[in-house]
């Protein structure tokens, strides 16, 4: 973007101002804040802002009075109302005074981002689609690529993140379509981002490497889906995302670093360029002088040795690597007629690849070398001894002293299996005392009201067709599910796209793990 968008937060709660600053600064906004509505009004009148986030209930001057005075000089400035208890009179007054939308507290980073993006889109000020072009020959990308599972992301100059996938086994002739999320949708790290449809098997799921709100999609993929195979880390990108939890989620991602050992300068340059176009950070070395660089982060680094360039000395070089840095994985790149395979296999090598750059096998090699496979967590022995039973819900008192209850629609949670077992285990690992309510209790207004009266926060888990990929999550504080009176303000609905038979048991285990992580985080952080 040519210049930063400016955002003003006016809220008497410093914690809200700080949270908005943290969220929107990462997204490329210039953020200013005020806990004094009178000072905030002066800033709004005299400054130039793209949007104002305004609390409705403040001392000295409430949000309605603020809006009335602001409209005297700034009749068209977008204002997003933030409120703990939305009321019909306040909503009507805010709309009359030109408020663009409102959001209910407490809100998640995704909800406030989604609301701001929606307002700016209506005003024609949404983030522009990124211009993602192949890296020029002989150059490295300005920002590094980070990988989560098979998905990657790269930060853009405007603070957004460009997302894509490096997936092995894709053949251009078999690709049929790429299913992308819609602009404005929320995606969560580890949950479905996109799906690649081929003619020779079921759809292949792409898990989101970061959480955030979709700001743009690659329209070119709708015309030419083969780009995800032919140019996956450049013109085959998938979406652009306004990130919402970047700092905490970056620790789950990793770089792809390659120490390329090749004394043949021209061949090494060609190999480095191909690896760079596949999202790798490449360091070229004639021998072992850069081995210390590889050893800095061995979990993110492989050594790639060109057998043709080293000749008969290559196998002994691998032996030296084994001794100096035994934790590093070594990939030997060999010519089709190389006579040294048996010598190399006397040492510890990760892979012996015959001409991988010629037939694009290098994508499969990188996937095998770098992909971190999470173990499929099974219930503990303690859980195995407890008979499996359905759960109506799980409650905790979190570290903020709030009582939080997760109420599940019948059939979605079980004590020691699937999503229910994972949620219980994660809460126990975090040392929360938990209470599991057995049975299948229907979600009715009376049951919601009863639960809302007992807890500070009520989370309602339902399986619902939201028109997205199985396992996708939609968090909603304005959903149809509600309780009478002020009880509705306590309710957050978690809508999950069900599997093919309408439940959650058939979801990919990686998605189930990520769902449990997101639910537990929300229960613990309220």
How would you sum up this structure, described in words?
The strands form five sheets. Strands 6-7-8-14-13-10 form a six-stranded antiparallel β-sheet. A six-stranded mixed β-sheet has the order 22-20-21-23-25-24, with helices on both faces. The protein is 30% helix and 24% strand. The longest helix is centred in the last third of the chain and has 17 residues, at 509-525. The protein is an alpha/beta fold and 526 residues long.
Strand content: 15-25%
Major sheet description: 6 strands, antiparallel
Instruction: Determine the mean pLDDT.
Output: 89
Strand segment tally? 25
Radius of gyration: 26 Å
Low-confidence stretches: 132-141, 375-385
Strand order of the largest sheet: 6-7-8-14-13-10
Question: Any idea what the shape is?
Answer: globular
* Percentage of residues in helical conformation: 25-40%
Q: How many helical stretches? A: 18
SS class:
alpha/beta
First-residue to last-residue Cα separation: 34 Å
Assembly classification: single chain
List the helices and strands and how they pair.
Blueprint: E1 6-10, H1 14-26, E2 30-34, H2 37-46, E3 51-55, H3 63-70, E4 79-83, H4 88-96, E5 101-104, H5 109-122, E6 146-148, E7 151-155, E8 161-165, E9 175-179, E10 186-187, E11 192-198, E12 204-207, E13 212-217, H6 220-223, H7 227-230, E14 239-243, H8 246-249, E15 257-261, H9 265-277, E16 281-285, H10 291-296, E17 301-306, H11 307-310, H12 314-324, E18 329-334, H13 341-344, E19 351-354, H14 362-370, H15 381-384, E20 391-397, E21 403-408, H16 418-429, E22 434-438, H17 445-454, E23 457-463, E24 473-476, E25 491-496, H18 509-525
Parallel strand pairs: 1-2, 1-3, 3-4, 4-5, 15-16, 15-17, 17-18, 18-19, 21-23, 23-25
Antiparallel strand pairs: 6-7, 7-8, 8-14, 9-11, 10-13, 11-12, 13-14, 20-21, 20-22, 24-25
Helix pairs in contact: 2-3, 16-18
């Amino acid at each position: 973007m040519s210049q930063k968008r400016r955002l003003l937060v006016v809220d008497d709660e410093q914690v809200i101002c700080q949270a908005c600053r943290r969220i929107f600064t990462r997204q490329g906004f210039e953020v200013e804040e005020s806990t004094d509505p009178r000072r905030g009004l002066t800033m709004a009148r005299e400054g130039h802002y793209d949007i104002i986030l305004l609390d409705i209930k403040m001392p000295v001057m409430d949000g309605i009075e603020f809006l009335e005075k602001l409209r005297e000089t700034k009749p068209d400035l977008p204002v997003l109302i933030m409120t703990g208890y939305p009321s019909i009179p306040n909503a009507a007054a805010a709309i009359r005074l030109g408020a663009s939308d409102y959001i209910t507290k407490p809100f998640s980073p995704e909800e406030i981002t989604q609301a701001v993006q929606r307002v700016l889109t209506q005003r024609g000020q949404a983030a522009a689609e990124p211009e993602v072009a192949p890296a020029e020959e002989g150059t490295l990308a300005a920002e590094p690529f980070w990988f989560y599972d098979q998905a990657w992301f790269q930060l853009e100059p405007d603070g957004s993140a460009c997302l894509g996938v490096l997936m092995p086994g894709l053949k251009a002739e078999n690709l049929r379509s790429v299913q992308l999320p819609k602009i404005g949708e929320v995606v969560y790290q580890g949950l479905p981002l996109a799906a690649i449809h081929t003619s020779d098997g079921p759809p292949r799921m792409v898990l989101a490497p970061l959480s955030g709100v979709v700001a743009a999609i690659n329209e070119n993929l709708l015309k030419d889906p083969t780009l995800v195979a032919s140019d996956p880390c450049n013109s085959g990108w998938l979406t652009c995302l306004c990130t919402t939890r970047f700092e905490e989620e970056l620790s789950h991602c990793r770089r792809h670093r390659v120490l390329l050992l090749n004394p043949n300068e021209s061949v090494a340059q060609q190999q480095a360029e191909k690896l760079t176009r596949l999202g790798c950070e490449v360091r070229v070395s004639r021998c072992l002088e850069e081995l210390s660089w590889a050893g800095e982060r061995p979990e993110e680094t492989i050594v790639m040795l060109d057998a043709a360039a080293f000749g008969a000395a290559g196998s002994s070089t691998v032996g030296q690597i084994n001794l100096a840095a035994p934790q590093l994985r070594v990939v030997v790149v060999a010519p089709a007629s190389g006579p040294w395979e048996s010598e190399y296999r006397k040492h510890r090598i990760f892979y012996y690849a015959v001409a991988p750059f010629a037939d694009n096998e290098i994508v499969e090699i990188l996937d095998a070398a770098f992909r971190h496979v999470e173990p499929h967590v099974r219930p503990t022995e303690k859980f195995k001894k407890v008979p499996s039973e359905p759960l109506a819900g799980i409650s905790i008192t979190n570290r903020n002293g709030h009582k939080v209850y997760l109420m599940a629609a019948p059939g979605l949670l079980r004590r020691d299996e699937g999503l229910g077992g994972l949620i219980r285990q994660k809460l126990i690992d975090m040392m929360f005392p938990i209470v599991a309510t057995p049975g299948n209790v229907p979600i009715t207004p009376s049951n919601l009201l009863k639960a809302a009266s007992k807890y500070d926060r009520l989370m309602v888990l339902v399986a619902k067709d939201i028109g997205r990929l199985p396992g996708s999550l939609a968090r909603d504080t304005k959903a149809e599910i509600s309780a009478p009176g002020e009880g509705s303000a306590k309710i957050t609905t978690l809508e999950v796209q069900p599997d093919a038979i309408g439940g959650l048991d058939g979801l990919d285990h990686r998605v189930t793990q990520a769902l449990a992580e997101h639910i537990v985080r929300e229960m613990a952080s309220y």
